[in-house]
Amino acid sequence: MILEDALTRPAVLAPVLFIIGYVLYQLFRPSGLPNVPIVGAKPAEWFPLIRAKWRNTKDMKTATEVAYSQYRDQTVILPIAGAQNFVMLPAKHLQWLVDQPDSELDLHHQVLESLQLDFTVMDPQLIYKPIHQKLISTVLTRETGNLVPALLDETRFSVDKLWGTDTDNWTEICVYDVMRRIIGQATNRVFVGLPLCRNKDLLDAGIAYAQDVPVSSTALRFTPRLLRPLAALLVTLPNRIHTRKFYSILRPEIERRLREYDARRADPETKAADKEPNDFLQWSLKQAKTSGDPYLAKPETLAGRILLLNFASIHTSSFAITHAILDLAASKQENFDELRAEISAVLKEHGGEWNKRALAAMEKLDSVMRESQRLNSFVTVATSRTVVNKNGVDTPDGVHIAKGTVVCAPSYPVFHDPAVYPEPEEFKPFRFAEKRAQPSSNTDQKGEKESSYVERARQAFATTSPEYCAFGHGRHACPGRFFASSELKLMLAYIIMNYDIQIQEKRPENFWFGINRIPPMKATIKVRRRKESV
User: Fold this and answer.
1) Fewer CB atoms inside 10 Å of the end CB: C or N, the chain?
2) CA distance 410 to 136
3) What would you report as the CA-atom Rg of the chain, rounded to the nearest whole angstrom?
4) Closest CA to 383 of 116, 88, 117
5) Which is nearest to 203 in space by CA: 265, 239, 150, 246?
């Protein structure tokens, strides 16, 4: 009786009918997906896409391995809860995928959807006018060598403070928590310079925002599209709080620099001797001023770009350095000895100076970072793109994929394929250094042996390939990977030279968050300052 009375009321009946209608629509609407195998589906079961979606989400490791091994040369559908249904191409078509023009397959559209950037970024114009990306791929890459002294100074300051200087007793640290703070300081030394890079409130706001985006975007992807604008008001509240906090701290510095920039232009002779900061904020300011677009030179816009850079860099770099430290801590003491010998020899060759050339010459150190990312890469499906051509696209094996579909290729199972990487489950820190030392086995188009430099460069940490997509691959590979490579190697080298790490019997396991792999965030190690520090 109570139920019947409730259902006669429009205020109750309308939402009930809406929910029923929405569920029926989701169950029976045309998927628009190609007629190819569905990973995680069982033969002849009802609603295979929906049921496979939850099975795959509960065990993404198995899902990606099945897609790669059972359907190695086939295109498949990989349904994942809280995401669009992926169409995964076989690994042999990855190069075709990244070679397609943006008018056919678009990365930007996929990132917008995956991170729900229209809601999770407080000023979406920052996303639709991503002029900072040009600075990353040009100025930041070019200036990396000049930034090494500042990075070393900030690394020394933050590591000594957070790892301690006790040479007699072991100190237990939580690797991820400590390294995230160190990465935040060192990276912001390049983004905003001293003293702001050491401002605890600024770092806290940037780190918090970097956590807000994946959490809020995941919640929004599970929300029906029609309800997302309403849900975002609540879900993205932490994003807005931390954005305002970050802006409020950075604004006075931006306003001061804008005044100084205008003064230099108004009186170039008097102000010519004034030295401009060499950091990303200053590059962004100059870019905005020379563009003539008032929006780009607003303090809020400039602060927003720095906040986006914090989001893009802090998580990924913190994960990478955490993985490398945990991998080494669970290996052998001989690995530390070998690395120290290489670092000492290289520094001696360069007059004791830490610089870009010295870092490039530390091939075993470089190999440690590349091998650690091979084993633990955050990326499990590679080079995701959204079909934007209104007529769809046809893959090399003739599968037609409709507009709006997300296309990707395998990454995690390639990293763990013994045919590509022998003994793939083992952390072999010098795997890629040993490959560099081998004579060239490839030939160019004329049938001549490739230069040893080209062959060696292919094994470097920041180099991508269809078999190594930790930074993506193709023209849209991570534009900041060369800077990140130098920063991470410098940080790891400093730690190795100045600290002993107690060897652990077993490495703590990673865990899966949707399609991504995350390091054990509460894992600890014991460290002690070395008496022979540098």
Assistant:
1) N
2) 27
3) 25
4) 88
5) 246
Supply the angle between the helices 333-349 and 363-376 in degrees, to the nearest 10.
140
Q: Is residue 118 exposed (0-12), middle (13-18) or buried (19+ Cβ within 10 Å)?
A: middle
**Site of tokens 């100084």:** 260
CA distances to 23, 26, 57, 445, 515 from 47, in Å: 12, 10, 16, 50, 22
SS3 494: helix
Put residue 232 in one of left, alpha, beta given phi > 0 → left and psi -120 to 50 → alpha: alpha
Calpha distance 300→247 (Å, rounded): 7
CB 392 within 8 A of CB 403: yes
Q: Which pLDDT tens digit goes with each residue over 411-466?
A: 999 999 999 999 999 999 999 999 988 776 555 555 545 546 677 788 999 999 99
Helix axes 60-69, 48-58, angle to 10 degrees: 110
List pLDDT tens digits, range 346-356.
Answer: 999 999 999 99
Provide the whole-model pTM.
0.90
Q: Are 194 and 176 in contact (CB under 8 A)?
A: no
Of 214, 208, 184, 207, the residue nearest 196 (C-alpha): 184
The alpha-helical segments, DSSP class H, found in 350-471 are 356-361, 363-376, 412-415, 431-437, 452-457
